[in-house]
Design brief:
Layout: H1 10-32, H2 43-66, H3 76-93, H4 107-111, H5 127-151, H6 157-175, E1 187-188, E2 192-193, E3 196-197, H7 201-226, H8 229-246, H9 251-277, E4 279-280, H10 287-300, H11 306-325, H12 330-344, H13 348-359
Antiparallel strand pairs: 1-4, 2-3
Helix pairs in contact: 1-7, 2-7, 2-9, 2-10, 2-11, 3-5, 3-9, 5-9, 7-9, 8-9, 10-11, 10-13
Length: 378
């Protein structure tokens, strides 16, 4: 991406290192110092950063398909939500008889007079089985959807529209009470994870650190992909797919691989999101949420990997402030932000930083006087 700082240049590595160290210190400051201490970090602030890291992982996944492969998805929210629901099924089973109705079934099933779990809830009392679902469900949906779409050579705005239609269809499906996913209320009121209280400070700190580790791991994985030969093929798909086909490559499997991997990363982000936020409902599948992911990548700088992470933190930080100070103005501010980025910051925050760096005047050093050559003796 011309104009933006080079991918993982030395300043970028330094920035990532500072972020990792700073973010890793937050749980320590939360647990080691009591409320009121100058160094104490509140549980709310730590939870907010944890949520932002989940969003950053989703934005990174989107950048892999949009920034590097040229596939604009307006439906990544469905992969995020499916991963969240897969983990949420285990969390709901772990409630046990601690619910309002003192039943082994979730409260919403008792309220609807269900007597047993549906067949697709089988084995969801196993944590590792649900973790497998977190990967397999979004990955399988993406593979099947992508295979038929890419084989049919659907691309550009048409592909974006059908991805948006897909997430909207799933949102309507999950809003129904008879699907067994809690209807419009979704899953909430979680109690335990692997026997530990979800609300305990130690559990929150572990979940936070796992999210940080997986975000950095996903960043390194994506960097390895985009700097490899596979990454060069993906960028060739973005820049000139027809020319790539002319020289003998079949773009179908390359696009399908990166599309499926992106969906899996989004599902993992959703699974990390659920226990930290404490709720998942069908509104996470709304087309507006998928469009916000695109805005995160655009604001930070798509095609840079680091940019979407910066964009996710920037946009969601502004959202948290706006919804508290000016709740009625957030959507207008978000629209204005996207317009400004589209018109004046097409390469995002990282591109702007690169332009500012190049515009700095280069100091001119005074040249030393050149002595005239001595005359040769006759």
């Amino acid at each position: 991406m011309s104009g933006a700082p080079s991918l993982f240049s030395r300043p970028a590595w330094i920035g990532v290192g500072v972020f990792v160290v700073t973010a890793a210190l937050l749980p320590l400051l939360n647990l080691a110092f009591p409320d009121g201490h100058a160094l104490h970090v509140s549980s709310y602030a730590m939870g907010l950063v944890g949520k932002f890291m989940c969003y950053a992982l989703a934005a990174l996944a989107l950048d892999l398909v949009w920034g590097y492969t040229g596939i604009l998805s307006l439906g990544h929210g469905v992969f995020f939500a499916l991963g969240a629901y897969a983990h949420g099924m285990y969390l709901m089973r772990a409630i046990g008889r601690d619910g309002v109705y003192q039943s082994t079934l979730p409260d919403f099933m008792v309220f609807l007079d269900w007597k047993t779990y549906p067949w697709y809830w089988a084995m969801t009392d196993s944590f590792w089985y649900c973790m497998a679902l977190v990967v397999l469900v979004p990955g399988l949906l993406a593979f099947v959807f992508g295979y038929f779409a890419f084989r049919s050579r659907i691309k550009g705005v048409y592909f974006s529209i059908i991805t948006q239609a897909m997430t909207y269809a799933f949102m309507l499906l999950f809003f129904r009470n008879d699907t067994g996913f809690g209807g419009n209320n979704g899953f909430t009121d979680f109690k335990r994870i692997l026997g530990f209280s979800v609300t305990a400070p130690g559990t929150k700190a572990v979940l936070y650190l796992i999210t940080l580790a997986l975000l950095i791991g996903a960043l390194l994985l994506c960097r390895w992909i985009v700097t490899s030969r596979l990454g060069r093929v993906l960028q060739a798909v973005r820049d000139s797919e027809s020319r790539l086909m002319f020289i003998g490559y079949n773009p179908l499997w390359f696009k399908l691989f990166v599309w499926t991997l992106s969906a899996v990363l989004c599902g993992i982000a959703g699974a990390l999101y659920v226990p930290q936020v404490g709720i998942i409902n069908p509104s996470e599948m709304s087309p507006a949420n998928s469009i916000e992911m695109v805005i995160w990548a655009a604001v930070g700088g798509r095609g840079t990997l680091i940019g979407p992470i910066i964009g996710a933190f920037t946009v969601n930080g502004l959202k948290s402030w706006f919804t508290a100070a000016f709740p009625d103005l957030w959507l207008f501010a978000l629209g204005l932000l996207f317009i400004l980025v589209t018109l004046f910051m097409q390469k995002g925050i990282l591109g702007l930083m690169g332009n500012l760096k190049r515009s700095k005047p280069v100091p001119v050093t005074e040249a030393a006087p050149v002595e005239a050559p001595a005359k040769e003796a006759a």
